Structures are given as C-alpha cells and as structure tokens.
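[agent] plan:
  1. take the single chain provided in the ticket
  2. run structure prediction with default settings
  3. attach structure tokens to the ticket
  4. add a short note for the reviewer (M.T.)
[agent] executing step 1
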Amino acid sequence: MARIEQEIVNHRVLIVDDSGLMRNTIRQIVAADEQLVVVGEAEDGLVAIEKDKELKPQVILLDIEMPRLDGLGTMKRLSLRSRAKIVILSSLAQLDSPAALEASRLGAFEIIAKPSGTISLDLKAKRGHEIVRVVRAAAGLPPLDLAAMYRKAQRRKEEQISRPG
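[agent] step 2 finished; step 3 output follows
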C-alpha cells in the first residue's frame, strides 16, 4: 500500500526590522513552522517595498521604528499595491499606544509588542508562540495542533531508532 504524503504548501513571509539581530531571531521563530517560509528580509521600509514587489509575500512582519521609511509610512505605501497581510512587531506597539492605534487604522492584521524594547533578546521565549499563531492566521492557516506535532516528532524519532544503519 502506497503511503500518501500530505503536500505542504509554504506560506511566504517577509521580515522587516532595522536590527539584524531581531531579523535573525524572528526568522528562527517563523522557521519553526514547516508551513511558513521566510522569503526575504528588509532593514527599512524602502527596501521592504522593493522586496514585496519582487517576492510577493503573503505576510509581512513589520517593525515601526526604522530609518529612511518607518513602519507606518511603509504600511501607507503598501496599502496601495500589496496583497500581503501586515503584522506589526514593534516595541512602539504597546496596547493603545498612538503607533498601535495608527497601525490598526491603516489595516494591520495584528499588532504584537516586543516584550523588552527595540532589541528584545527574550522575543522567542515571550512572544514566539504568539508570533507563529498570528502569522499562521494571517496566512489563512489553522492553528497548530501541538499534540499532533509532538506525536509526529515521536514517530520520526522511533523510525530513526528502528532503522538499521
């Protein structure tokens, strides 16, 4: 009996943050989900607009505070031409802050506050699951079934152990 593998469709994500360290951390968080793929990164809004045009992501994770063109300015420009859902991920996006309210008004899919300021070294620990959950929702994916993921990982582990080799 042939085993049928479920085809995994990758949903395209663009990461926009002026900090290389934060882009790398966000990339690691997103990469943990096998249905999400980071197709590019940008260090400011002007680069993000070009990358959006070139890479056509479904979801953009966007910081607000950046040089040259900030996140709110980027949202205004992208709203005219992009189909991507925008998820704000910023230290300026605390609940009911002026920046968060403006991002909402401009059509942000969701707003997630970085937990410890511009460089949040604890982002993965404190907001990792929330980021994946929100990006999946923005991409039109159902919530993760963590129990099923655990069972699948256990099966793979058992298969590796039982293989001669």
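[agent] step 4 note for reviewer: The beta strands are 11-16, 36-42, 59-62, 85-90, 110-113.
[agent] ticket updated
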